[in-house]
Amino acid sequence: MRLAAFAAVLLLAGCATSWTFESNLDPQAISDYFAPGSVVVITAEATGQRPTLGPVSGEACQESTVQVPVTEADARTELRAKAAQMGAEAVVIEQCTTLSGKEAPPSCLTLILCSGHAYGPEPAA
């Protein structure tokens, strides 16, 4: 009986210690990874009074046949990430172009380029 009580005390004491979590993940890298999610894609008509921050572009390149084929979504995500670095809240994506075969640069089997404009937050009413 005494042994069971002693074991219970040790078990509870072990659970009462403070635990710390350490990670090799860089908080800035995590923030950069999720940055595109803070930028919404809007239409040109929906820009309203938002200030224009400037042109922005994104690209996606498939360098070899063993890589996953690139998609327009990859290029659009890079565009949104660059817009987030500019402090944008929204982007208007004007055009995406796919280059493959002889049209693509020598370093890419397929290259997708997207361009647009970044917009800041709407002014307070």
Task: Give the SSE map.
Blueprint: H1 2-15, H2 27-34, E1 40-41, E2 52-62, H3 72-85, E3 90-100, E4 110-119
Parallel strand pairs: 1-3
Antiparallel strand pairs: 2-4, 3-4
List keywords for this structure.
four-stranded mixed β-sheet, 29% helix, alpha+beta, 125 residues, Translation Initiation Factor IF3, 27% strand
Top-tier CATH class of the domain at 40-125: Alpha Beta
User: CATH superfamily name of the domain at 40-125?
Assistant: Hypothetical protein apc22750. Chain B
The count of β-strands is 4
Low-confidence stretches: none
Please tally the helical runs, counting DSSP H or I stretches of 4 or more residues. Answer: 3
Name the overall outline.
Answer: flat
Compute the average pLDDT.
Answer: 86
**What fraction, in percent, of the residue positions are helical?**
25-40%
- How is the largest sheet built, in terms of strand order? 1-3-4-2
Strand content: 25-35%
Main beta sheet = 4 strands, mixed
Radius of gyration: 25 Å
What is the straight-line distance between the termini?
A: 72 Å
CATH fold field value of the domain at 40-125 = Translation Initiation Factor IF3
Task: Look at the helices and sheets and give the structural class.
Answer: alpha+beta
Q: What is the string of helix and strand elements?
A: HHEEHEE
CATH architecture of the domain at 40-125: 2-Layer Sandwich
